[in-house]
Amino acid sequence: MADAAGRLTKLAEEVLGAPLPVRIRAWDRSESGPPGAPTLVIRHRRALRRMLFRPGELGLARAWVAGDLDIEGDLYAALDLLAGLIWERPGSPGPQRAAVLRALARPEIRAAVRQALALAGAPVPPAPPAEEVRRRRGPLHTLRRDKEAISHHYDVGNDFYALVLGPSMVYSCAYWGTADQGVATLEDAQRAKLDLICRKLGLQEGMRLLDVGCGWGSMVLHAVREYGVRAVGITLSEEQATFARKRVAEAGLADRIEIRVQDYREVHDEPFDAISSVGMAEHVGRTQYAEYAGALYSLLKPGGRLLNHQIARRPVADEEAYHVDEFIDRYVFPDGELAPLGRTVGQLEEAGFEVRDVEAIREHYARTLRQWVVNLEQHWEQAARLTSPGRARVWRLYMAASALSFERNRIGVNQVLAVKTPEGGDSALPLRTRTWSA
Fold first, then answer.
1. What is the bridge-based pairing of β-strands 230-235 and 208-212?
2. Average pLDDT over the chain, rounded to whole?
């Protein structure tokens, strides 16, 4: 059993067909790999069993969430080094896992795997961590299943989210600027994002706003306070709704803001002058997106505006082969799906909208995520107590890996402004929309 790290490094390099760019420290205290590189710490042989019985991303994720696997050194550097070898890139049809499976078909690799199995101990896979979503009921994107998926992600404790998100309680990409522009902190940047959305929507006193996926109420509170509108915020998360209603009451705005636990498909009290959908459409799914776009179109009055703020993935050659990232699907956003920007714009147009502006802000999301990671790490022990150590590890990995994905242009985020343009063709938008005057 001596030199487990050396044996594992050799196996990994044979399977991957490339040098392992990180160092390994095994449970027997042996080490192997390039000096000075980030270190993959395998705390228990159980981690090896997880990876052997589920090769690729999910096995690694289970080992990480369970605490059997850790990274010592720069987390971002380690994930960046491993990205091309192990993590499946968002939007890819999974070439990394396919390459691993092809390698496992070779006799010499199967022999090495048998040695690794002997090294791993018990010949049975450990149970997945408790934080993993397992059995899901019914077809994708029914009202009940979507509510369960949202609950998994958002109903993990408002106090936990407060530690990660900070005072703004906004869980979407901030809009960064400079200190001279009054954007020096995460809270400044989130306020700037909310105000940018209000200006793009052309909000004015007396208008009626629908915020789809209202989270903890920050968007509707800002719109009502600063622009004098009346607002309805909808969410599928009971915990978010409770928190948002409390904020609304404390602000003395209960007569102008209504927070509902409601699906967008259940809203029937139109018309609205404007609709904001910020970080919600990722949950809709490709089979439901046409219905989503059509529902929002029907809820707007003629001339009304939609601001759809949505993460996008890069297109792939075979869109039918696209599958959801296993780690994200099992631990973060069950049933969530990303679409290329062009597909989103096309479906909004097919619903009847005139798309008037698209602003890409992926670098802003990378910076936002890095700040959330800092917040989590600074409050690590408290965050782990409020949820579980495994849940805190899920969020740290997901946010750090997502920051890198935005930085490397593997995914992006876009604000799409669309108008329910009347038959006469008057969009009521200024000739130069980027001034964002009302």
1. parallel
2. 90
